[in-house]
Amino acid sequence: MKIISQQYGKARVRVMKLLKDGPVHTVKELTVKTLLDGPTYGPSYTAADNSMVVPTDTVKNTINCLAFDQLGPDTELFALALANHFLTKYDHITRVIVETEERLWTRTSIDGTPHPHTFTQAQPAIPIVKLEATATTTVLESGIKDLLILKSTEAGFSDYPKCDFTTLKETRERIVATSLLATWLWNSDTPPTSYSAANATILNSFMKPFAEKYSESVQQNLWDMGTLALETVPEITRISLAAPNKHCNLIDLTPFNRENHHTLFVPTDEPHGQIEVTIGR
Ligand SMILES: O=c1[nH]c(=O)c2[nH]c(=O)[nH]c2[nH]1
């Protein structure tokens, strides 16, 4: 028997950093996972040999210290610094995986004036970063998960194939709702000037076609979102979108002498359709 693959490290390391501009604070909160790998890790499993095993406790301390020293508005730069640290500090570490999730703190306004140090959590989605780095390669992805979006009309689903098992009725009016997971791959040769700004542009590009165009299907929505993101942000090479189709089913009120025309629904979580696509250039 042999080891096919391994990675180990620390997960769910939580840090909150105050980015200070005089009295004006910005809160940056991340949950970080960092995993390490290299060709000499086999004996740590097969021969109880810990000589290569940088303790996961050290991994946690490294995350904390590098967050203190280097974490700024762009999580991507922090992930790259973290991976680079392990790759340069230890010869036997040749592959590092860093994954982050961000909790967003939004500055409050008091009587219309942004407050320097008070925040709420009105989070539309969870920003995520995934990095896999070696000495010579960098696969850096950013994204969002749990972006709840809904279109209450201007949506339908029709012209699909039918068979003995088909019960779904064609419709030209329905609700489309999803909790979007989207990840985009950065071209490592041409990083953006600001990851945060580019990420914001990509998020905006999701909502415009979703809002403005009649939806024939979730598939069409994902295509429109992904292609607009690729058009507007040249620094990404590929985008993956995954969307549960959170069906909102019209409730039959005819037994109660009520005509329910696209007004009262039962929102369902499961079973749900699942539409996934990766779009490249
Ligand atoms: O947008 C949709 N795509 C599908 O593939 C599908 N399948 C289904 O039953 N309803 C829907 N809606």
From TrEMBL:
Stated name of the protein: Uricase
Pathway(s) of this molecule: Purine metabolism; urate degradation; (S)-allantoin from urate: step 1/3
Entry keyword set: Oxidoreductase, Purine metabolism
Gene3D superfamilies: Urate Oxidase
Gene Ontology biological process terms, A to Z: purine nucleobase catabolic process; urate catabolic process
Gene that encodes the chain: pucL
Catalyzed chemical reaction(s): urate + O2 + H2O = 5-hydroxyisourate + H2O2
Family: Belongs to the uricase family.
Naturally occurring in which organism (per UniProt): Phragmitibacter flavus
